[in-house]
Each structure stands twice: as C-alpha cells, then as structure tokens.
Amino acid sequence: MPIELNNVVTSFHLRKSVIYAVRGVSFTVKDKEIIGIVGESGSGKSVLALSLLQLIPRPPAIISGEAVFDNVNLLSCDPSQIRSIRGKRISMIFQDPLSAFNPFMQLSDQIIEPLIYHDRVSKKEALEFAVDLLTQTGISDAHHKINTYPHQFSGGMLQRAMIAMALITKPAFLIADEPTTALDVTTQAQILDLLKMFQQKFLMSIIFITHNLGIAATFCDRINVMYAGTILECGVTNEVFRHTAHPYTKALIRCVPSLDNPADSLQMISGSLFDSSQPLTGCPFAARCDYSNEYCRSTPCTLEEVAPGHASACVRIKKGEISL
Ligand SMILES: Nc1ncnc2c1ncn2[C@@H]1O[C@H](COP(=O)(O)OP(=O)(O)OP(=O)(O)O)[C@@H](O)[C@H]1O
Ligand code: SF4
Ligand SMILES: [Mg+2]
C-alpha cells in the first residue's frame, strides 16, 4: 500500500529554542516498494518516522504537511483513526528494541497485543500465531521462550521478537527504524533476509531507515539521502550509487568500510552536522563540502531531477558546475 509524503515539517518548540528536526520532506513510497532513508545520526530519520504515526507529542512538536495513506492524512487525522491504522495497517520496528518492550511484561503479552486490540481474536489463537511467527523469525523453542521477559532475550532475539510483534497483524506498510544497527553482521544479514521474506509474503511497502549505506544498497529499491532534516538526493538505488549527484552522498559512500582497501577503510566526513536549532538559508552541507562557495551558502536547496527518477538538491550539480 503506497504512502505519499508532501512537505512534512516537524519542529520542537522548546522554552528557549526551536529544533527544526524535519524541514519539509516529500517523497512517495509505491506499492510493495522498499524505500531507504539514509543519513548520519541526528539528521531527522526517526523523527520523520515517528511523525508519520503521530508518535511525537504535540506540544512541544508542531507537525505540518501531508502523509497520505489510503486517502487519510496520517499527520492530521483524529486520534481514533490513527489508532485504527497504527499497529494494524502500518507497523513500526523501533530503533532500540530493549526500550521498546515493557521490561515488566512477558514477551507473549506484548507480541500479541496488536492482534488482540485490532482483530479481536482469542488469546489462544493470537498466541499460536505469535509462536508461529517467532519460529519463522528463527527463534527455536518459541512456545517456551515467548513466556520470558525482554531482559532474558539477546539483542538479536529481541530484534526478532520486535519483528514478530510488528508483523503479527500482517500490515500493508512497515516502517523499520535501524532494525539491524545493534547487531553483528551475521545476525544483520539474517534479519534483512527475514524482512525481505515477510515483505514478499505480506506484499508490504517498507520505509527502511539506516545510517549504513552498504545495507541500503543491498536492501532498498530507492534511496533518500537525508541531512539536517531535508532530503539531499533521492533515486533508484543503482542510479544513486553509480551516478551519485550530491557531495554528501559521495562522502557517505566513501565512509562505507572496504575490505579490499583496508588502508582506506575508516573514512569520515569532517566537521559536524548542521545545527538543528538554526533555520536554513542555503545548502545545509556547505560548511563540510569541498565544493561550496558563496552561492551555495545563500541559495535555498530544492530537489530537482538530474536524470529520470533521480533528483539532487546540490545547486552546483544542477548547474553542471561540478561532477563527482
Ligand atoms: N523530543 C525531542 N525534543 C527535541 N528535539 C528532539 C526530540 N527528538 C529528536 N530531537 C532532535 O531532532 C533531531 C533529529 O533527531 P532524530 O532522532 O530524528 O535523528 P536520527 O536521524 O534518527 O539519528 P540516529 O541515526 O542517531 O537515530 C536531532 O537534532 C534531535 O536532537
Ligand atoms: S550546494 Fe554547494 S555546498 Fe551544497 S553540496 Fe552542492 S556544492 Fe556542496
Ligand atoms: Mg534514529
């Protein structure tokens, strides 16, 4: 099921400052498509995801724009409407599984809760399905383990339990916020395979958030590169990697560790993220970009197509002044 985002803005209005976490994000996730959102820590990925499901308290946040799902604007629909969608038609895998589960409740009760709330099935039926799902996620002896508490699960097992909880209602849309970040590479690969398997089984669309470009490259159909609350580049995954059209994306790609060139393997982007309490006047990446000039610092960034299905917000790329 598709979602269409149109100029989504989320800002936190604190006592002495305003934090501009998401500064006008627009993109569409098509039916059965996996869209990646990549970017450094603090770029607004989680705030954007939480905004879509009305999981950010208002106040202090003010959220505007549209996120249209099945003719409903998720950002402004009434509480009962979002409750009927959240956890049923759109599910979320949260960034930190340990804090997403209640430490005082058995996993069984937490995993089946969305199914009992939305589909009003009996507890026995819900538990059977939960055990089946947990087994499919690779947890052995699931009918015993489901009766334990979150602290008795390892990080990888909790991530699987969270996937089972998110998928128990067979949602049409999944938002996965860094679902593999805390895991070792082998478990990461297993979780990604698992998500792909369920995506094909339930014909889901997915927003997949990660700061790891390597993972996005293998998992996503299209990629949005996010920085300072804005999208700086977006396009079909291969196109973004082969014909990169923004210096920030290029810098992120350079940071992906390479086993072929261990000497180059620990690259970084110098400087720090754009201050989220400052309004944007020009390119947010200007202070860290090797190609910046006065024009970049004063010209607002807007995404424009540089090739079919591929857009960049870099004014110098768009004018053909630089190539990467
Ligand atoms: N509740 C809040 N109140 C005020 N500011 C917030 C709040 N939540 C997030 N922010 C700010 O919004 C910005 C974006 O945060 P967000 O959590 O979306 O980053 P992220 O891209 O998900 O980073 P990470 O990769 O570390 O998860 C940051 O500057 C953060 O400090
Ligand atoms: S607009 Fe200028 S500062 Fe921003 S990425 Fe492009 S060249 Fe760099
Ligand atoms: Mg986050």
Largest sheet, spatial ordering of strands: 6-7-8-3-9-10-12-11
3D shape:
globular
N-to-C terminal Cα separation, in Å? Answer: 36 Å
Q: Which CATH architecture of the largest domain would you pick?
A: 3-Layer(aba) Sandwich
How many β-strand runs? 12
Helix content: 25-40%
Q: Mean pLDDT score, rounded?
A: 91
CATH topology of the largest domain: Rossmann fold
Question: Can you walk me through this structure?
Answer:
The chain is of the alpha/beta class. The protein folds into 2 domains: 3-89 and 174-318, P-loop containing nucleotide triphosphate hydrolases (Rossmann fold, 3-Layer(aba) Sandwich); 98-170, no CATH class. Helices cover 34% and strands 23% of the residues. It is built from 13 helices and 12 strands. The strands form 2 sheets. The chain has an 8-stranded mixed beta sheet, with helices on both faces. It has a 4-stranded antiparallel beta sheet with strand order 2-1-4-5, with helices on one face. The longest helix has 18 residues, at 185-202. It is globular and about 65 Å long. Adenosine-5'-triphosphate (ATP) binds at residues 12, 19, 21, 39, 41-47, 95, 211, 276.
